[in-house]
Fold this protein.
Amino acid sequence: MPNVLVIANETVGGTTLLDEVMSRHEKDPATRFHLVVPQTRPRSGLVIYDDAVRHGAQVRVDLATSVMADRGVLITGDVGDGDPFHATMDALREDRYDEIIVSTLPVAESRWLGRDLITRLEEETSVPVTHVVTDLKAEGLPFHITLVVANRTASDDKLIARMKEKAAENERQLFIVVVPQEGGQGHHSGAARARLGNALDRMRGEHLTVAGMIGDPDPYDATMNGLQFFNVDDVLISTLPEERSGWLRQQLLPRVRKASNVDVEHIVAERAATTTEAA
């Protein structure tokens, strides 16, 4: 059966790439696809947190493989090296492929094409390379993406209720949940992963389509990196009440609104935090 390697990052949910995959699937439903999403270096923040970077790429893998699997496509996925050439070569060392599909932005916007990625792969491999150009500005995405930023309030009833309202309004609604870490030490990333996992479990229990990642300890940087990593339509930020919220004291809402071009909605949680309050 054919085995196809797909390399994509920002364009992973684009209609052009989905159509390319579906055309091969419809021709031969036994075709297997393996998606590799190279990690993206965030632009916001003075320190790069490896766990947060990998989580961002993993969200793209999870969402893309879920959408394609729902359409009957046989697909697996993984996070790759930050350099798309190295990510591709690593995948080729792991398995044999009959074709490589590389999805990029148009040439004026694509850093991958600026590095001559397609030419390098054609010269260095014996595998046929198909280049797919996805213009996200022109074609958009086949779903509506809301970025949800929350920490101690990530499982709050008011936040879940608002997410359910949005899902009822749009059947193509997807949520990407970002839980900022509360510090830069190893145990902080573990605590954030646990809180994220609990929140995602509850959201999925409410039949919401969600994926999530941990973020930079600074909630502003975590939000801006989420906006960089994903093609977001709007943002939900959940905090504790004003008198108890470190995020509000940092002017998180006006700063995000000023720096972004999407709607930003604020949800004030009702339940109390269990330890030092920050969100």
Q: What stands out?
A: The chain is about 40% helix and 20% strand. Residues 105 and 134 are 5 Å apart (CA to CA).
